[in-house]
Design a protein that fits this description.
β4 and β5 (46-51) form a beta hairpin. This protein is mainly β. It has no helices and 10 strands. Strands 2-10-9-4-5-6 form a 6-stranded mixed β-sheet, with no helix packed on it. A 4-stranded antiparallel β-sheet has the order 1-3-8-7, with no helix packed on it. The chain has strands at residues 5-7, 10-13, 18-23, 33-39, 46-51, 57-59, 67-72, 77-82, 91-98, 109-114.
């Protein structure tokens, strides 16, 4: 199983930006897609975005146009650029690999957006 490490979370005011990272040392994401999920306190984990092995991206309606997922194979890292953040974006953000032989989760990084 690939080890995933998220970072980049923090506390920002509404309208601010954060850039989350999902790093997998020694793994270039050639054989696995990557998904981002978030979980607010007391809520179920929800899917936010994904990028497949070909670089095709998808987004939940709630974040479309504000979040951008990308990957840098040279750095073994997938990013989630978050702009125009809203208080409802608050939660723990996780990355996860998907596809045949994939399925690792990271430990999460906390995002808090104040109004």
């Amino acid at each position: 199983q690939v080890q995933l490490v998220e970072s980049g979370g923090g506390t920002v005011q509404a309208g601010g930006s954060l850039n989350l990272s999902c790093k997998a040392p020694g793994f270039t994401f050639d054989s696995c897609g990557v998904e981002w999920y978030r979980q607010a306190a007391g809520n179920q984990r929800e899917w936010v975005s994904s990028i497949n092995t070909a670089g095709v991206t998808s987004y939940a309606d709630s974040v479309e146009g504000r979040l951008t997922v990308s990957k840098d194979k040279a750095k073994d890292t997938v990013y989630l650029q978050m702009n125009s953040l809203k208080p409802e974006d608050t939660g723990m953000y996780f990355c996860k690999t998907y596809g045949r032989g994939c399925g690792s989760w990271g430990q999460g990084t906390q995002v808090t957006v104040s109004s």
